[in-house]
Amino acid sequence: MTDKNSTAPAIAVEGLWQVFGEHAEKALRTAREAATNPEDFHAVAEDLMARGLIPAVRDANFEVKAGELFVIMGLSGSGKSTLIRCISRLIEPTAGSVRIDGEDILKANEKRLIDLRRNKLGMVFQHFGLFPHMTVTDNVAFPLKMQGAGKAERRKRAHEVLELVGLNGREDAYPRNLSGGQRQRVGIARSLAVNPDIWFLDEPFSALDPLIRRQLQDEFLNIQATLQKSIVFITHDIQEALKLADRIAIMRDGEVVQIGTPEDIVLRPVNDYVREFTRDVPKGRHARVESVMLDKTPDSMPDDPKLKVGMRLDIALERCMDLYEPVPVWDDAGNMVGAVNPAELAAALHVDDDTGGAA
Ligand SMILES: Nc1ncnc2c1ncn2[C@@H]1O[C@H](COP(=O)(O)OP(=O)(O)OP(=O)(O)O)[C@@H](O)[C@H]1O
């Protein structure tokens, strides 16, 4: 089990490259040697492309904490699927290291990999991959069968996870008789059956219509609130990323260009590519009042309005928009923890925004 109290990351990715093309490893080595600065991965990637190779993941470095919901977001072709496939070792990365709970999985032999996939890693993909000739229960129980669990135990566990995803009553149905949303629920239940510590989901909801998609996102958040898995979740939908993520990694052309909380991404985009994604996102919904707290708390401030730690920016602004001086922010115990300037609140809500900010 992942030790939720430990500070060790669930996943640690370092200097990861995936280069497609002939003799990729050698080409990467050559390109690094030829670069004036081998750490300059832009130059290395340019060189590889000039030689006709595809650097689909370029020097990725990040950690996923235990119990964290880490979303990878980017346009089509930016390298998201390739990255998640490298981390789960569905493909062999060209260079770099991937540690899962401290274990270097690029060094794991075939037997260990099978063991990890059966017991520790769960995977869900966009196309459900259900067995058409098996009932819902048998689909969900299948990985348990692979683990060698007995029939009664398999049925009990299948029933538990089907209940978790809201599919009780459909245990004996076949996939063809289910809606897309229900099939995806079966896929989720199946990957949860073995109680994985680490869960990889590649665009799990993108084949669904918007209403069902939102419903599944809500259910997914509920499941995560209970189970606290360490999750890598891929999407190309910024709204989905902002709704689900503890932190988001934004990819562009194989490069991880920014990693941050939804608030960081919305309020502090590192470049125009990231800014463009969040242009129409209502900023106030994703940022909290402490993100604009003043470095120094003034000595005298009005008592009201009572802004609280954790309050959304748009709601905070509503309460103090007619004031021109800094106002205090309080915690739940009634202690003053700092102050914000209403003008800065308003400015944060309108970051680069010509769409009306908190609208
Ligand atoms: N097996 C492969 N051989 C050669 N090139 C590949 C291979 N797989 C992916 N690529 C290329 O790597 C790049 C990244 O692709 P990838 O599928 O990882 O992107 P993505 O962000 O997941 O896209 P999408 O959202 O459309 O699934 C693309 O240029 C793609 O064409």
Automatic annotation (TrEMBL):
Similarity remark: Belongs to the ABC transporter superfamily.
Entries under PROSITE patterns matching the protein: ABC_TRANSPORTER_1 (PS00211), ABC_TRANSPORTER_2 (PS50893)
Protein's GO biological process: amino acid transport; glycine betaine transport; response to osmotic stress
Catalysed reactions listed for this entry: a quaternary ammonium(out) + ATP + H2O = a quaternary ammonium(in) + ADP + phosphate + H(+)
Stretches assigned to the ABC transporter domain: 36-278
Subcellular location: Cell inner membrane
Membrane topology: Peripheral membrane protein
EC number: 7.6.2.9
Assembly description: The complex is probably composed of two ATP-binding proteins, two transmembrane proteins and a solute-binding protein. The complex is probably composed of two ATP-binding proteins (TmoW), two transmembrane proteins (TmoV) and a solute-binding protein (TmoX).
UniProt entry tagged with the keyword Flavoprotein: no
Keywords: ATP-binding, Cell inner membrane, Cell membrane, Membrane, Nucleotide-binding, Transport
Molecular function via GO: ABC-type quaternary ammonium compound transporting activity; ATP binding; ATP hydrolysis activity
Protein name: Quaternary amine transport ATP-binding protein
GO cellular component, one term: plasma membrane
Record-linked InterPro entries: AAA+_ATPase, ABC_osmolyte_uptake_ATP-bind, ABC_transporter-like_ATP-bd, ABC_transporter-like_CS, Gly-betaine_transp_ATP-bd, P-loop_NTPase
Main localisation: membrane
Lineage: Bacteria, Pseudomonadati, Pseudomonadota, Alphaproteobacteria, Rhodobacterales
